[in-house]
Every structure is written in structure tokens, then in C-alpha cells.
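Example record

One chain of 215 residues, shown exactly as stored in the release files.
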Amino acid sequence: MLQVKEQSARVALIGDIVESRRTGDRQALHDIVAAVLARTNAEHAVVDPAVITLGDEFQGVYATLGDALTAAFRIRAGLRPHDVRFGLGRGDIQTLDSERGIHDGPAYWAARDAIVEAARLAGKAALRTTRTVYLSPEDAPALVVAVNAALTALDHILGSLSPVSWRILGGRLEGLTQQDIAAREGITPSAVSQRVRSDGIGVAMETMRMLGELP
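Predicted C-alpha cells for this chain:
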């Protein structure tokens, strides 16, 4: 029998791989997602660890919006070159089955609506880089608008990065120095520094840092 446990308002994160059906080796993709989620769960604050729930979809529960967004940023970078879409929602959460990680409640309903909205917005030419949306009946509407404005701008920067710049961003998020990244990429540290400035990597990292401090 499923057990229902009430929790205080948390932030639910739902993610899925964009156009995953075009991936040839589905098992390999599943293994990559599982590994990235495990690493993110181990390195960042989480209430209920992010786990694969169905196909290429995954979900997790976080104490704050900042924690959930930080996890989303790390997961997105870790899964490159696969593209990822995220929906986040704040509210009460019911744990229906703790062993299998089955949850329900307003936070998940909001997160589900958010990921649907992210897909809808990405269907518009001007907003095609949109990958992350936050919805919350718990927060002031103005706050939700401000968060989504920042996420839209951040998604635009991330959606414009070249594969090399994505790897540089991923390395910086992992805590690697520019010298480490340069050696890995076979370029000079000054070339890494130039990309951080010119490609918006520095702006993206600072935006992620600020969003990561949200309650």
C-alpha cells in the first residue's frame, strides 16, 4: 500500500531530454543521465535526490529555489551535448512511495505546468532557446516574473554557446581552473579567458550564482 507523507512547501524539479527519441543508443543515454544525477545529488543540497522516473524524465525535491536551480544548471552542463528542459514549482509535496521516489502535490503540479510552458515558449522563434520555467502559487507573482525573466536571458546565453564554450562553462562549474580547462581543451589559458568574457560565460556564471541564492 502506498504511504502518504505530508511535507512543508518545497521546490520540485522536473527535467527531460529534448528530442531524446532521436538518440540512437537509448541505454547509453539512460546511463549518462543516471551518472550525472548521482554526481549532482552527491555534490549539492537536495531533500529527495533527483532520480529517473520514466523514460528520459527525472525529478527531485529541494529546500529552496536556489538549490533546485543550482542542480538544474549542473545537470544541464553535465548532460551536454544532450539538451535538457526543466520545470520548477514550489508548494506542498506528498511522498506517495519513498522507496521508488513517487511524489505528488502542488509543487509537482506547478513543475509539470512549468515544463509544458517551457516547451511552448521554445516553439516561438524569438524564444527558441527557452529551457527553464518556474511557476509557484506560493510566491508573489512579481517574484515569479522576475525569476523567469532572468532564466529566459540565461537560457539565451546558454543556447548560444559553442560546444567548446559549453565545455569551458562545465569545467568552471566543476571547479576547474582556467589552466586545467586549457590543458584539457588543448588551448591557451588566455584563449579560455577570452571565451569567458566574449561568449558570456562569465555573465552566465554570475547569473547562476545569484539565482542559486534564492530562498
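Notes: The radius of gyration is 17 Å.
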